[in-house]
Amino acid sequence: FRNHKIILGFNLLGYLLTLTTGSHYHVDLLGSSAFAAGAWKDLSSSIARIRYSSMAVCVFGARLAAFLFYRVLKTSHDARLDDILGDPIRAAGFWIFSAAWGICCSPPHALGASSSSLGSPLATKVGLSVYVAGMLLETIADATKWIFKQNHPGQFCNVGVWAWSQHPNWCGNLILWTGIFIINAPALIVSSSNVSPKA
What burial letters (b/e) apply to 30-63, b meaning 16+ CB within 10 Å? Predict the structure, then answer.
């Protein structure tokens, strides 16, 4: 898929920047924005389902990349990445994992964008509703934890949605991708009447 090639390209660029600069400022910016870059072209699709799906992926990728880049600019340092990115072999493993994450998450849109089916208007509405719910949960979780850490450095965040779950941000991420899957799922179902019987 074209989307996967873009994701691989972004992560390869990230690895090369790591080797040449030793910086980690670009890590989350490239890793997350790769989603938006991969889906960007589909915004011009003549099929409404694909446009909505593409918009959902672009908003997700842009929002996450902007937040993570803002966070690293404010903190200036991420000790967790020092040992990993300081070694070329471990850095390669890190960027391979990042690319694998992008490729494993993107099929709900990438497969949907490869189909010319109009899909289902009802599924599109339901999927968008699920997506918005997931996006709100992920955004609220990120904002809550960020504010908490500013006021209580070194402490475990246990307020707001973090009082309900240890990983509400990942829960929101799973929900929003489920919404994107719902948008595209009907377009991927092949009617049995269109399948030629085996000889």
Answer: bbbbbbbbbbbebeeeebebbebbbebbbbbbbb
Torsion over CA: 151, 153, 156, 161 (sign)? positive
Q: Contacts from 60-65 at CB under 8 Å and sequence distance 24+?
A: 60/35, 60/36, 60/135, 60/176, 61/32, 61/33, 61/34, 61/35, 61/36, 61/37, 62/33, 62/36, 63/135, 63/139, 64/28, 64/32, 64/35, 64/138, 65/28, 65/29, 65/31, 65/32, 65/33, 65/36
Q: Which residue do the tokens 């509400």 mark? A: 168
Q: In this structure, what DSSP letter does residue 26 have?
A: T
CA-CA distance, 143 to 52, in Å (whole number)? Answer: 25
Answer yes or no: are the C-beta atoms of 90 and 165 closer than 8 Å. Answer: no
Q: Could you count the other beta carbons within 10 Å of the beta carbon of residue 5? A: 10
Residue 27, judged by CB atoms within 10 A of its CB (0-12, 13-18, 19+), counts as buried
Please, which residues have CB within 8 angstroms of residue 181's CB and are 6 or more apart in sequence?
Answer: 108, 127
Whole-model pTM?
0.85
Token reading at 150:
């500013």
Query: Tens of pLDDT along 4-49?
Result: 788 888 889 988 888 888 777 787 778 788 888 888 889 999 999 9
